[in-house]
Amino acid sequence: MVSKxxxxxxxxxxNGRSAVARFDGDxxxxxxxxxxxxxxxxxxxxxxxDILRLYSELMVGIQSSVKKYKNITSMAIDAWGADFGFIDNxxxxxxxxxxxxxxxxxxxxxxxxKIISREELFELTGAAIIPIFDLFHLxxxxxxxxxxxxxxxxxxxxxxxxxxxxxxxxxxEYTRITTSIMYNQKEGRWEDRIFDRLxxxxxxxxxxxxxxxxxxxxxxxxxxxLEIETMPVIAPAAHxxxxxxxxxxxxxxxxxxxxxxxGTWCIIGKETESPIINDQAFNAGFSNEGGVEGINLFVNHIxxxxxxxxxxxxxxxxxxxxxxxxxxxxxxxxxxPFKSFINVNDPIFAQTQVxxxxxxxxxxxxxxxxxxxxxxEISRCIxxxxxxxxxxxxxxxxxxxxxxxxxLHLVGGGIQNKLLCQWxxxxxxxxxxxxxxxxxxxxNLIMQLKASGEIKTLGEGRAISLxxxxxxxxxxxxxxxxxxxxxxxxxxx
Length: 493
What we know:
Nucleotidyltransferase, domain 5; 21 strands
């Protein structure tokens, strides 16, 4: 067959990209056509997403992709798993979406919990009950009597908002809505009991669309502005984690496998047939998210590469020179092993506007540990602590599902750090498989292939992913040493 071109957009919490996938019926290859940073803006005491700049990057990505690849079959957008915008009844965006790390929603969560406890929210939705997610911000807007809440006509998550800008159509994509803490995942409906008790409106949510369904074409007006031909806009798994999991090139379907999506957040989990909602899961910090084709993702959220990203920003600022990721990994590899650990999920490491290296140093001092001071020591502390956290949560995952994990698939931008991948295999004692680098883009593509009739099932898409991808294998090493150090790690939790 003649190759077909598919346009992919992936908006991550710290950067984004557009890419074009060329598919010949058996294999695909993906070329990134545009990359950009995603930096929030702190203004007048509030942390915002710079949504209009991100939209302009979307336009640049479309134009640059169409310029190089004339005939594009369709396009699709995935994004991070929190935050939303409101349009009014005239179809206008009311304000910039607020960043999930803004402190206001965390402060207002205290009053929300007085009405509905964390335990009950989990029982009703099965979602992760963390103040970064949509329910907490919507409730915070209500308490403020904010213009967005008063005048909001349609609630649109970030990928839904971009799709609206492109097509004029309003939908909520399924996988993204399952992280909102407003959707009953067992019964497949919005949870009215939450809306009633918190006095939140029910009529602001548009129709839910599933991955692999067509939203509409890019509007004629926008096509005229961009000087392009129109193309269909498809709903992928709009939550980037769900897209990443969909794109995993499963090498052995007969073995129990789990995944870690390694990005600003690290998300560890496995696919299950249905949501797991019980006290044991809640107490262990696990929750549920929607996958494609009715699959459930049973996961735990880990404060991931955010910590080292914040350290790098501080080091660059202090030294007035660029410090590459390669340099950080090299310095980490030669630093003293197991000098100190941090609990990466301690709330102090999720804060913005802090000196992250100093915060790590203080944490270690308060726990009676040796102080990591150099770039190599601090970065090694972070990476080893992440590997230990992965071990901790993988053990919990096995307990909660009753399944021994035989293969661990790592996906996301973090897999470019080969040192962390090896340490993950060492710490967990589990063979690790990584790749492809752009797994989220692969999952996005698979749903576009399904929409265009090239494939019928996720399984077919994963077989194509395996046929098209270069994967890397990491075998566990130094098990005894990592197990010995793990007992020390547990003492700082």
